[in-house]
């Protein structure tokens, strides 16, 4: 009887030791995704939207300091009555990715229009036009600022224009006609 108790005690001790020893355990739960925090360390607005000196004076040093890059308009579409611009620099940690959003609103013949442009580092994981599969024949290959890109327009007329210039990946959303938006983007100035 004493031998049985001793054996049972040793067996219980071995089970306890094995469970606490750091031996790998099997789990069926997926690992939790890393927590990402987005900071917006800089934002500026300006009017009219084609006043490059105004936005350059306020944003250039912050873009250099944070490592971002942006495109800003040097002209406006024909027959624009009024316009405004907003530039926001954001940083996502981890991985320390800096991205820049530029929003331009303008009126033509009493109708408001807008274009938003986001700029990300090209080395981050963003799908290319070739990799993206929205629907058969739904993406159209285009050239934007001398780089290969694509355009997709949804059923309500919102167009998405994307391209990669080697250093930056760009994503545009607008209700403008894609050809008009692409033509306008050709003249935008890169900061810094």
SSE layout:
Blueprint: H1 2-20, E1 37-46, H2 52-66, E2 70-72, E3 80-93, E4 97-108, E5 111-121, E6 140-144, E7 147-153, E8 159-164, E9 168-174, H3 178-185, E10 189-191
Antiparallel strand pairs: 1-3, 2-10, 3-4, 4-5, 5-9, 6-7, 7-8, 8-9
General description of the model:
There is one protein chain. The protein is an alpha+beta fold and 192 residues long. The chain has one domain (37-191). It contains three helices and ten strands; from the N terminus they run H-E-H-E-E-E-E-E-E-E-E-H-E. The chain has helices at residues 2-20, 52-66, 178-185, and strands at 37-46, 70-72, 80-93, 97-108, 111-121, 140-144, 147-153, 159-164, 168-174, 189-191. Strands 1-3-4-5-9-8-7-6 form an eight-stranded antiparallel sheet, covered by helices on one side. Strands 2-10 form a two-stranded antiparallel sheet. The chain is globular and about 55 Å long. Residues 2-20 have low confidence and may be disordered.
Give me a quick take on this structure.
The chain is an alpha+beta fold and 192 residues long. The chain has 3 helices and 10 strands; from the N terminus they run αβαββββββββαβ. It starts with a helix and ends with a strand.
Keywords:
alpha+beta; 8-stranded antiparallel beta sheet; two-stranded antiparallel sheet
What is the H/E order? HEHEEEEEEEEHE
Overall 3D shape: globular
Radius of gyration: 27 Å
Low-confidence spans: 2-20
Distance between the amino and carboxyl termini: 84 Å
Query: How many domains make up the 3D coordinates?
Result: 1
Q: How would a crystallographer describe the biggest sheet?
A: 8 strands, antiparallel
Helix/sheet category: alpha+beta
Give the % helix. 10-25%
Count of individual beta strands: 10
Average pLDDT reading: 82
């Amino acid at each position: 009887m004493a031998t049985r108790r001793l054996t049972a005690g040793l067996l219980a001790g071995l089970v306890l030791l094995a469970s606490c020893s750091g031996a790998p355990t099997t789990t069926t739960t997926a690992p939790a995704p890393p927590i990402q925090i987005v900071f917006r360390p800089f934002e500026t607005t300006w009017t009219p939207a084609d006043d490059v000196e105004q936005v350059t004076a306020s944003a250039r040093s912050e873009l250099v300091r944070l490592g971002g890059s942006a495109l800003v308009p040097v002209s406006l579409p024909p027959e624009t009555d009024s316009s405004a611009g907003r530039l926001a620099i954001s940083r996502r940690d981890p991985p320390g990715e800096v991205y820049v959003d530029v929003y331009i609103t303008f009126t033509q013949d009493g109708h408001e229009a807008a274009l938003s442009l986001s700029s990300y580092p090209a080395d981050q994981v963003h799908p290319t036009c070739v990799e993206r599969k929205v629907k058969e024949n739904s993406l159209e290959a285009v050239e934007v600022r001398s780089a290969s890109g694509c355009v997709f327009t949804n059923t309500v007329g919102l167009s998405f224009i994307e391209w990669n210039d080697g250093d930056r990946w760009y994503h545009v959303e607008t209700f403008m006609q894609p050809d008009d938006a692409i033509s306008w983007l050709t003249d935008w100035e890169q900061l810094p």
